[in-house]
Amino acid sequence: MPVNEPESSGGRPTVVRMRDVAAAVGVSVKTVSNVVNATGQVNEATVRAVRAAVEELGYRPNPLARGLNSRATDTVTLALPGLGYGYCAPLAAAVFDLAEAEGISVVMEPTGGDRERELEVLRNRGGLSDGVLLMPAAITARDLGDLPSPGPAVLIGSRRVEGPFDSVTSRDTVAAEAAVRLLLDRGASRVVLLGGERKAGGDSAAALRTDGYRRALTAAGRTPDPSLVVETSQSSRHDGHVAIAQLLTRLPGGETPFDAVLALEEPLAHGALHALRGAGRDVPGQVQVVAFGNDEDAEYSSPGLTTVRADVRTMARRALDLLTARVREGARPRSQVEVPLTITERESTFS
Amino acid sequence: MRGRLSEAGADSATRGSATLRDVAALAGVSVSTVSNVARGRGNVREETRQRVQDAIDELGYRPNLAARRLRSGRSHVLGLALPSVTVPYFREFADSVLREAQEHGMSVRITQTHGDVRRERGVCDDPYLRHVDGILLVPVALGQEDMRALTVTKPLIVATASFTAGRVDSFDTDRFEAARTVVAHLVTGGRRRIAALAPGEALPAESDERYLGYVAGLRDAGLPVSRRRVVSTETVTFAAGAGAVRTLVERAPETDAVFALGDALALGALRGLRDAGRTVPGDIAVVGFGNVAQAAYCAPTLTTVDPGREEMAHRAVSLLAERAKARTTGAVLPEPGHHTVGFRLVERESSAVASE
C-alpha cells in the first residue's frame, strides 16, 4: 500500500533506451553506443542494422550518455557511505542497471559517511567522472554554501541538504508516521523505536524517521515515552539484539514492557526478532515488528518481516534523469524530487 | 580528464588542463596562495580568495586527484566485477572490498556481471572497467578452460574461485575440503540422506569444488550419492532456495539434511521447509556456505561455512594495489599464483542433533 500519493507527474512516456535498440538488433549496448557516438570500430552491416533500428524504434540518445561518450569519461560517480548501510545496496544495483543500459559506467566511491570525503566527491575535480550521485550522510547546507564551483551532482537519500544541487529524497518522515499508525491500528500501544534519535531537530535518516514516529503518536493523542526511543551505536543485527534483550530484562516480572517495535534499519529488526525469540515472546502475538528495509531477508525470515521499503528503482531513475538534464542544460532551476516509500505487510504484524 | 559537462557552452577542450601556475598567473597571486585557496587552507583574504576562485572557475582547474594521478600514472581506482551487489554474500564481500580499498586510498568501480560467462571472460576489456589500475573478479560461471584463454591486460585477481592456470592471482578457501567437512558434520549428527542444493543449469558444474567435496564426503561415510537429492538452481537467491526445497521434499521426501552451496539458498531453504511443514533441525538439518550476517540471526540460526571473506578481501585488495603500483615503479613481485584462505565451520541451530 502506498504511504502517500505518488507525484502527479501523470505517468512518464515510454522512453526507448539504448538497451532496447541493442536487443532489437541482437548486439551489445556498447556496439549501439559505438554506432550512435561514432566511436570504436563496427562493421558496415552492423552499423546499418543499428541505424535502421534507431530509426524504427525512435531512439534518441540520452544526452548524458552522449555527452559522456563523446566528450569525457563515460562515467557517473556513485558516492554512498557503504553497501551495508540503509538501502545503499539495492539503490546501487538499480543505478548500475539503469546506467549500464545506457552505456554509462558507474564508479562507486565509498565515503564511509565522512564529511571530507563527501565534499571531495562533490568537488569532482579529478576528472574521475562527469557527474556525481551522492548520498549525503555528513555534509550540511552550510558546507554546500562554501563549496567552490561544484560539478554536476544530484543528492540522493533520506536527508535533504539545502544547497545548489538537485535532489531525490525518500519521504522517510511520512513513511515512519504511516508505519506507527499501522501498528496503532493493529492494537499496539507501546511502540519501541529501535535505532531512533532521542535529540530532536536533527536531519539524519534516523532523526527524520523519529520525527514521523513522534508525529504519529501525537496525532493519535498519545504522549511519546522517551524510554521507548532506543538509540543504537550502529545499525547492525548485533545492536538490535542487545537493545531489545536489555529492554526485555528491564522488568523483572517477565512482563513485556512494549508490544511493538519499529526498527529504523532492517538489520536491527533481525536482531530484535532474534532477541524476542530467545526470550520466548511471540511475534506478532505479543510483539509486532516493522522495519525500514529493502532486503530479501525480510521476505524469507520467520516470521516474515513487515517492511517500509524505499522505491530505489524510481529514485535511481529520477536521479539519473536529473543528472542528464543538468548536464544538458547547465544552469536550470533546481529540482527537488520526493519519492514515497511503501509498506509491505508480512507475518510480523497482525493483518 | 577533459571538460566537465556542467557549464553549457563551456569549451571543453580548454577546460580541465589548467595548472596551478595558470591560475596563479590569471589571478595575479603566488602559486602557494592558489594552493591554499583550492585546499581551503591558510589565511587568505576574502577578496583574494574570490579572485583566485574566479580564476579557478574560469580555467576549470582541478587539483588533488588529477595531480595525484599525473604524478603516479595511475587512476587509483580498482575494478570490482561481481555477479550482483544484492546477493548477501557478494554485497558483504563488496563492502569489505570498499573498506579495504579506502585503506589504500583507492575508490572502486563496480560492475555486475550477472553471472554471464562472456562478461566474466572479457573482464579486462569490459568498457565499464576502463582506466582502472587493476581488477578484482568474483566469477561464478568461469571454468578452468576459460581461465586459460583469458587475455590479461592489467593486474587481475580472481576471488572466491581457484584457478591453477597460474597467469593470475586467485584467492579462495579450500571449497572441496570445506564441503567434505560439512558432510562429515552432518553424518556425525546422525544424518544419512543428505541432499545438496547447487547452483548450475542442469546438474551442478563438475567444476564446483563444493559439489565434488559433497560427493567425496558421502563416499567417506560409505553413503550413496543420489541424483534425486541433488537439486540445481539457476540462481543463488532466497527464492531459488525456497523453490529448490519444495522440489526436494516432493522428489526425495526421505531427505534428512540439506547442504546449500550458498547462504542465500540456505536462508530461502529454511523458509521453504517451514512452509512445507518440515521442522529444522528436527526433520531436516540445513547447512549453508558463506556465513553472511543474517546466518547468526535467522530462525533457526544457520550452520554455515565461513570462507574467510574479510581475510580474502584484505589480502586480495592489498596484493592488487601492490601489483598496480609495481607496474609504474617497476618493482618485482612474485609470480601470480593461488592463495588459500582458511575456512571454518560455524555450528548453529540448523544442524543440531534433534533432541528426543
TrEMBL record, chain B:
PANTHER family the UniProt entry points to: HTH-TYPE TRANSCRIPTIONAL REGULATOR GALS (PTHR30146:SF109), LACI-RELATED TRANSCRIPTIONAL REPRESSOR (PTHR30146)
Domain annotation HTH lacI-type: ranges: 18-72
UniProt xrefs under Pfam families: LacI (PF00356), Peripla_BP_3 (PF13377)
SMART domains: HTH_LACI
CDD domains from the UniProt entry: HTH_LacI, PBP1_LacI_sugar_binding-like
Organism: Streptomyces iranensis
InterPro entries xref list: HTH_LacI (IPR000843), LacI/GalR-like_sensor (IPR046335), Lambda_DNA-bd_dom_sf (IPR010982), Peripla_BP_I (IPR028082)
Swiss-Prot/TrEMBL keywords: DNA-binding, Transcription, Transcription regulation
Identification of the protein by name: DNA-binding LacI/PurR family transcriptional regulator
GO molecular function: DNA-binding transcription factor activity; transcription cis-regulatory region binding
